[in-house]
Amino acid sequence: MKREKYNLKKTFQLAGMPGYLLIGYYIIQFAFARQRSDMGAVDASAAVFAMYALGTGLYSFRLLNKGANKRFLNWTFQKSPIKWFGLYTLLCFVSSLWSSNLMLSAYRAVECMGFLLLNMAVVCTLVHKYTFQNVMLWSVTYAFLNLLLIFVAGMNGGLYLALYNCQFPSTIYFYLAFYLAPTKYMKYPMMAVAFLCKSVTGYAGMALGMCSLMFGKAKYRVLGIILGIGIISAVSVMGVDDFLNQTLFASKGGAMVDGKLDEGKTSGRATIWGDAEYIMESQGKQWTGLGFVVGEMQMARTIIGGQVIGMHNGFLSAYVGTGYIGLLLFCLFMLTVVGLVFKNHIPKEYRAVLIACICVILFHTYGNPGLGFRVYGTWMPAMFVIMLTVGLEYKSKYLKS
Fold first, then answer.
1. What are the CA-CA distances from residue 54 to residues 116, 144, 256, 361 (Å)?
2. 4-44 residue pLDDT tens
3. Which is nearest to 315 in space by CA: 381, 375, 382, 369?
4. How far apart are CA 374 and CA 323, in angstroms?
5. How far is CA 393 from the centre of its chain?
6. Which of 252, 285, 302, 324 has the smallest count of CB within 10 Å of its CB?
7. d(Cα 83, Cα 332) in Å, to the nearest integer?
8. What's the pTM value of the predicted model, to 2 decimals?
9. Which residues contact 234 (CB under 8 A, 6 or more apart)?
10. In whole angstroms, what is the distance from residue 318 CA to residue 293 CA?
11. 374 in helix, strand or coil?
């Protein structure tokens, strides 16, 4: 059967109002984001984001409670990995009771739930109305528009800032572009931005994502074997340190010395991570945490000062903000996401791209702000990919088309 010619506008309209509201998040950012003296403050621009999160969340919840959508909503919160994230977010809200800034912790938790529901509404709309192919085509179209908006907004500060601002979504969406982009005008710019953004964490995730080649079509498996042989050969000739310094850590001028990572080139992460457990124990907060978002911002600034906003590690964000219970819930969420993407229910032709994207998300969650923290950094693109995975699982099991 001949494929219909791709039309960006027509494709993006498939998700209806939820899709427009999802891309609207980035339009709101473009219009209202500005430099603030305190990135953690709830000022006028933050109030706009709060209203948008609350409004879109309520709209999405109403949509998800109608007709066949209600079954998807119930299944997602009862039988998919999202149940763990929902419980984690609820605990984040409860942690505002012992946070030093009750309103900020509560606001950030509500924001997470609002955008979780919005992503859910988008995927629910798509999987109920369209084929697997159209769902994935909408997804890569959304990823392209997402990157375009972020890139254009960043150009106010020049090309370097534009690429820097794209480091999180571009690397997470890299394999969506590689496998599914319908035109070369979409595919190659998206991939180029991911390569040029200088995100070491993103590069590591993209490298791990190459394992997905073994789960795709025959031509991809051949490519995977060739790349694997090439990497093994390069490491054998150059040694592990030189290979990593000239590839993964090239943007940092090399970071591996005698098999160890130079802590001076971890942007303060090693210092924060190393001191976090000691501070939690000294304050006796291992079980309750210090309050979602607020506690980790205060801890990070106590350790290295400046305007650092958090731990740059989703697992530590969960631990510092909500204690051992929150960490357990968040770990269960991430583990079940990984398990879900390898299940046999998801069509084989789309499993490879999801495996690759989840690999990138895992690295970003470990080394950058995002899931486990507030809606920032990798949060939105990571949540969309995870919700897409959940939606395809549901469609495969219950909708069969």
1. 11, 26, 45, 25
2. 789 999 999 999 999 999 999 999 888 876 544 444 555 56
3. 369
4. 16
5. 19
6. 302
7. 10
8. 0.90
9. 243
10. 9
11. coil
